[in-house]
Amino acid sequence: MKTIVVSNRKGGSAKTTTAVNIATGLAKHGSVLLLDFDTQGHASIGVGCDLNETLGVHSIFEGKTLSETFIPTVHKNLTLSPALAFFDVYEYSDLRGVLKSRFKRENIAEFFDYCIIDTPPTFDALLKNSLEVADSVLIPFVPHHLGVVAVGQMMRALYKSNNESEKKIEDVFILPVMYNPHINEHKESVTKVKTSFGEGKLLSPIGIDIKLAQQFESGSPIILESKRSKGLKDYNNCVSELLVRFEGER
Ligand SMILES: Nc1ncnc2c1ncn2[C@@H]1O[C@H](COP(=O)(O)OP(=O)(O)OP(=O)(O)O)[C@@H](O)[C@H]1O
Ligand SMILES: [Mg+2]
């Protein structure tokens, strides 16, 4: 199982849009588990489910198994562990290693080809738990000055996490989102990221497409498919690029 954590501490940088679209895209190639680690629950909404008030992925911090939080989605091959609404990470003093121990004890890797984790825009125990099980981290960023700064901050956080954890993150992918090739600042920001962190980490950009926002209303990228959206095409391309990178590692 390949575990991909979608993360950026900067809010509104299309983490959830990316998590939902790569999860549904990868589900066409294998079995996928989507963990909605952001209590906003937007990834759950994005795959047509509600966030739960009694049982969700955050229930593992209250003693539940991960498997008992699983629910099927309308997408073939895509299982969701929804967000637990109102879970407050700050009520707990030490949550280290909980997700990692659930993965191990429940043999999660035996049941899925890919696990996608949507994370909140914070550097807290939820993100740390995600990084402890990550093979890859995907950082979506809006190509503006602060977007570039945020990528640098994430890279430093990953470096720190790699130093502190036994499991090393193998790959970091950086994905420009809401990209407009006619805006100079967008082009320059992508060049800065390439120069600073290496061209090999960059994935092809996702353009602006309002249908990517509308898909959350229907809870399904099917709306995108039916309208042959540019956004869906970009995310399908992103999935293909990820598959090529993963294939190259075998
Ligand atoms: N390529 C795109 N084109 C147009 N709108 C987009 C695109 N990507 C994301 N959006 C919209 O931008 C907003 C922020 O996206 P999203 O919720 O995925 O970001 P996020 O990083 O998960 O936010 P948060 O930090 O709150 O978790 C949403 O309204 C989403 O629909
Ligand atoms: Mg989000």
Which features would summarize this protein structure in a list?
250 residues, alpha/beta, Rossmann fold, seven-stranded mixed β-sheet, binds adenosine-5'-triphosphate, binds magnesium ion
Explained architecture:
With 250 residues, this protein is of the alpha/beta class. The protein has a single domain, classed as Rossmann fold (3-Layer(aba) Sandwich). Helix content is 42%, strand content 13%. The chain is built from ten helices and seven strands. Strands 3-4-2-5-1-6-7 form a seven-stranded mixed β-sheet, sandwiched between helices. Strand 6, helix 6 (145-164) and strand 7 form a beta-alpha-beta unit. It is globular, with a radius of gyration of 17 Å. The mean pLDDT is 92. Adenosine-5'-triphosphate is lined by residues 11-17, 38, 42, 121, 177-178, 206, 208-210, 212-213, 231.
Q: Which overall shape is indicated by the principal axes computed on the Cα atoms?
A: globular
The structure class reads alpha/beta
**Domain tally:** 1
What is the number of strand segments?
A: 7
Helix content: 40-55%
**CATH superfamily caption:** P-loop containing nucleotide triphosphate hydrolases
How can the largest sheet be summarized? 7 strands, mixed
Unreliable stretches (pLDDT < 50, length at least 5) are none
Question: What CATH architecture would you give?
Answer: 3-Layer(aba) Sandwich
Task: Kindly summarize this structure in a few lines.
With 250 residues, the chain is an alpha/beta fold. The chain is built from 10 helices and 7 strands. The radius of gyration is 17 Å and the shape is globular.
